[in-house]
Amino acid sequence: MTNYHHDINWRGVDLNLLIAFSALMETRSVTKAANKLAIGQSAMSHNLSRLRSLLNDPLFERHGHQMLPTQTALEHASTVDTILALITNELLRPSVFVPADFCGTFKIGLTDYAELLFAPALYDAIHHQAPQCQLSFFNVDRHSYHTDFNQHRIDVVIGSMTDMGKDIEHQYLYTEDHVCLYDQQATGLNDQVSLEQYRLHPHALVSPDGKLTTQVDTQLQQQGFQRQVAVGSHNFLTIRHLLSGRDLVCVVSRLMAQLDIFNDQLTQCPPPVAIADFDIRLLWLHRNSNHPRNQWLRHIVANTVITHVNQLRSSS
Prior knowledge:
This protein has about 325 residues and is α/β, with parallel strands linked by helices. The protein is built from 12 helices and 12 strands.
């Protein structure tokens, strides 16, 4: 890290002084420089006085009707021009993100649900436009995502998060509902499940937080029922393996039930109890809202997810 000298009067450094210096170099006149910057002549004279004190040099001396630069002023002129150009072009002017030139890493936080559904489509879409990039998928859940944003410097998150803080912005992507998923032969169930069958058959549970109860159990209790939860796992793939060939019923999101990565021919049907739908959102940190790279990533991620969902639904 650079060690700045403690004897420099940083409080006296003012960007306006550099602008005033540049105007004086161009016009060689306090009056003309003041007019150019649309300030009063007394304000320009005050700026010149501050410049002289800061740089310990007269900088400009009057000769007739002109203010001629000293040798020190001439030596500093190119440096001042460079500083002002850098501020104008690199700091104040919005940068343009060119995905084809990007060689860095995009970090996307995904719940298990979102990663199974969208990781392949996101990889294809992003690498098509940014072929030199690296893509890192981070597993997150509704309890850890806020910490993960900062700890792993994640760019965006996809999930069913709620109660976002003021430092999180979000975009609605789509709404998901639920189905019952089961093996007809192993359970002896047909293509519809009654409430009584739902209550009596053992259940497998997708549980991101490890608990063996969900809002479904709360809703059943309100209706005077209780279900048998036989097994739970945070990993949907584990539950999907368990369903095949076993007397188990599982309530999962409709899109998850439609995944074609298995050839298990499980049956899905509407649940016999009312289960609340949930919204899937794209989230990002408020402080990164205006960053061109983040804006580009949010646009391509949102479009890819929405398109993929529509394709899955149209093929069902």
